[in-house]
Amino acid sequence: MKHFFAFAAFVAGVAALPQVKRAACAGNDASDRSVWCDLDINTNFYSTVPDTGVTRTYSLTIAEATAAPDGFDMPVMQVNGQIPAPPIIADWGDFVEVHLENQVELQGASIHFHGLHQKGTFQDDGVPAITQCPLAPGDNMVYRWRATQYGTSWYHSHFSMQAWNGVFGPIIINGPASANYDEDLGSIILSDWSHITADEQQAIANTNPVISQTNGLINGTNVWEGPDGTVGKRFETVFEAGKSYRIRLINSAIDSFFTFSIDSHKLKVIASDFVPIEPYETDSVMITMGQRYDIIVEANQEPGDYWMRSLPGTCSFSDNPQNIKGIVRYDSSSTADPTNSTAATQQACHDEDPALLTPIVSVDVGDATQVENLAATFYQDPENGWFKWQIGNTTMVAPWEQPSIKSAFESDFSFTEQEAVIHLPNANQWVQLVLTQAGPFNPPHPIHLHGHDFHILAQGAGTFTNDTPLNKVNPPRRDVATLLGTGYLVIAWQLDNPGIWLMHCHIGYHTFEGFGLQFVERQDEIGDLIRGDEMSQVCDNWDSFVAEHGIVQNESGI
Predict the structure, then answer these.
(1) Over the stretch 333-392, which tens digit does the pLDDT of each residue have?
(2) I want to staple 396 with a disulfide (CB 3.0 to 4.6 A). Which of 14, 47, 420, 455 is the partner?
(3) Where does the record place a coiled coil (predicted)?
(4) Which of the following is catalytic: 62, 391, 507, 558?
(5) Is 349 a residue of the active site?
(6) CA nearest neighbour of 70 among 237, 225, 252
(7) Rounded to an integer, what distance in angstroms lies between the CA atom of residue 443 and that of residue 437?
(8) What's the 3-state SS for 329-361?
(9) Which residue among 117, 265, 350, 448 is the active-site one?
(10) Is 507 exposed, middle or buried (0-12, 13-18, 19+ CB in 10 A)?
(11) Which of 250, 491, 505, 558 is catalytic?
């Protein structure tokens, strides 16, 4: 039955979670954002999902183009002709179908739905060399998944450097919130931007680990001081005095931590990644690659124009760090720049204080039955002089033509050492991962795990020892957290989601250079989740494309 697939089978595959039978929710209101029809912010979304009966369908086409996000023309990749890509919007509990077509001339493609657990649908995680072969030029495929979580995330290509050439867009899954607000302004995506392509950047990074970004974008736009003056356009949004606004922050950068702020305005943080948290107030939010924060901003200042700032951290290199700005206006007819021109201060690169990230739905961490201790190290490949990363003793290289899902389906989970596989066989038990870093080059790394929210037991600078305290009582949980330079990150998660899940650094160069590993979770249950005919069709078309064009893989594959 592995080769059989129908939409009914898809529904059954994700229906293991208890269902709350009702029609799709009409929504909450400004007086109480914590409710969601018969559910609320305290509902355990890991075990309960609304049954909306709704399927949302999206069609996406990836293609090459010439565009000028900051006024400087350059080759890019776009989704449906735009950067950022159009939003994927659903309600908590909806099913989502995404039809993808690859119109890139000589590259594969994929779409990864960042942070989604993909319960029962790991094949739809969108990672070449892991859950699929790359989608060949001219080919198309369909991803199917269920919105078992709610909040803010993003989708992006997981093929080579495409995400940072423009293949990224927001995901908004409507649900309850931990604080009230009047209006949802939607997503604000923070990006770094270079006037050479991400592929050209990587060619430099192969032998020079420090790359400086030319500029940055807010929701895909900014200005640039060119030889003939200022070109491009800043992102703008309008506040109405007295109202409160929800903003969904996303960092889609290749290699930039950002500090986000709005001059003279406080930010109330209500979610980190897909996890609602106890609200806290701050002047700014530090957000690393792949992370998301939902914030609420009160329009309570004197009417005027205010800078919205996205300032790279001290570990991030930018030619124009003070230029990554948008404008908040209280009067939509205004065209003036804000009068406050005081430069913001760059901050060290780190996550928000874990003590502030208290999940609303409390989950304690059980004792781990499997503990993995791994160190990240940087080295120069003696064969070609390229810089590489390894976790433990392995630089990850996963073959596009033989993704892990295909090995699971055809060859009884036969993997090479370079594929960096860790087996996690024990259903519903806890695994603990201790990541450390040492060596002459040790930047902070945003660590992203697919298929799970992980719990942050410990995080800091210095040396991890057996005496380092671990927080197992409702610790922060999310899907991206920072391994500090010369520091440690200790995370844990429960083995409740059979599949093959990638973990990697979300710095684009480091992923290319092998900073990744994959977890085969509950191997005995994976075969029944694979739609063999769909997988084989995509792989057969990729194989034909490779044979015709002589494509050679010179990277990690992820």
Answers:
(1) 999 999 987 778 889 999 999 999 999 999 999 999 999 999 999 999 999 999 999 999
(2) 420
(3) none
(4) 507
(5) no
(6) 225
(7) 9
(8) ECCCCCCCCCCCCCCCCCCCCCCCCHHHCCECC
(9) 448
(10) buried
(11) 505
Question: Catalytic one among 117, 265, 452, 510?
Answer: 510
Whether 507 is a known active-site residue: answer yes
Please provide the DSSP assignment of 259-275 as one string: EEEETT--EEEEEETTE
Core vs surface per residue 121-141: b (16+ CB within 10 A) or e: bbbbbbbbbbbbbbbbbebbb
Q: Are residues 166 and 41 in the same domain?
A: yes
Which residue is catalytic, options 515, 539, 545, 558?
515
Element (H, E) at 489: strand 487-494
Q: Which of 506, 530, 539, 545 is catalytic?
A: 506
Catalytic status, residue 37: no
The mean predicted confidence, pLDDT, of the chain is: 94
pLDDT in tens, 198-225: 999 999 999 998 999 999 999 999 999 9
* Number of domains within the chain: 3
- Considering the candidates 62, 114, 270, 526, report the single residue annotated as catalytic: 114
User: What is the total residue count of the chain?
Assistant: 558
Residues 188 and 169 in one domain: no
Q: Which of 117, 350, 445, 452 is catalytic?
A: 445
Is 15 a residue whose pLDDT tops 60?
no
Instruction: Please give the pLDDT value at position 26.
Output: 59
Residue 450 annotated among the catalytic residues of the structure: yes
- Catalytic status, residue 549: no
Active site residue 158: yes
Q: 219 and 142 in one domain?
A: no
Please confirm, yes or no, whether 350 is among the known catalytic residues.
Answer: no
Structural domain includes residue 555? no
Domain enclosing residue 160, as ranges: 7-176
With respect to residue 82, please indicate whether it lies within any of the assigned structural domains. yes
Domain boundary among 132, 149, 176: 176
Catalytic site includes residue 455: no
